[in-house]
């Protein structure tokens, strides 16, 4: 079964290792995801996030540019296996050439420093999806960690960014965004948007997950929620010391989202190289185990295809130019 994964933090991990003097490569490394593991796992495409933690670097924009530079260096090293895709047409061209596709994304809209010019320049660099926040307040809005506070939706710059992202053909990603921010995005957009790596709050009451109402609105808009493999987003027992992400919990979230928002609203957003703890699917090479688990759980072949790649491809086809 082909796979399209909406989120991983592999590029950030590789930059950290490079700057620590312990470099590894995208071709093969000790993390959750590399090209050899992707080939074994049956990947069609992978979204590679430029993730910046705003409070760590002196200059978040410069750090994002360093990450983009590493991404493109790795593309050059591995052009026999992996190519950039900016839309479905390019992904299909890569597939015909026997290559996997890399979509470039940003996790933390604050790297743009509130500048629409910076947003447009990232688009020119190939970025096709962006979360408006990570875990900190920024110029665009507020994160899910501030859900309980009033007035924590999008800021004026956030509304301007959402409008420009729709105009450009860049997918709006509401993972990490506050609940009020989610509803602001829903109210002021027309195209599908995604929660690239978020699960169902009804099953696991973490603020990073989506409520049933949010899921229904996401599905109504034609969007997709990518199942996150982090154990504390899958199982409430994780807060009591459990430390393994199980396939059965991933499937439970798939079923809940499908029953709430429709099967067309479920996708994959593993968060590989961005999550801790043990994962039953230890790395990208084992992703077909998830497919087998879905078959055993009663998903039809058509439903499995939708979750593994068709739903995400549909959103890309509708939004990306």
TrEMBL record:
Spans traversing the lipid bilayer: none
CDD domains in the cross-refs: rDP_like
UniProt cross-references to Pfam families, sorted A to Z: Peptidase_M19
Swiss-Prot/TrEMBL GO biological process terms: proteolysis
InterPro entries recorded: Metal_Hydrolase, Pept_M19
One of the record's GO molecular function terms: metallodipeptidase activity
Protein name: Membrane dipeptidase
Species for this entry: Cuneatibacter caecimuris
Upper taxonomic lineage: Bacteria, Bacillati, Bacillota, Clostridia, Lachnospirales
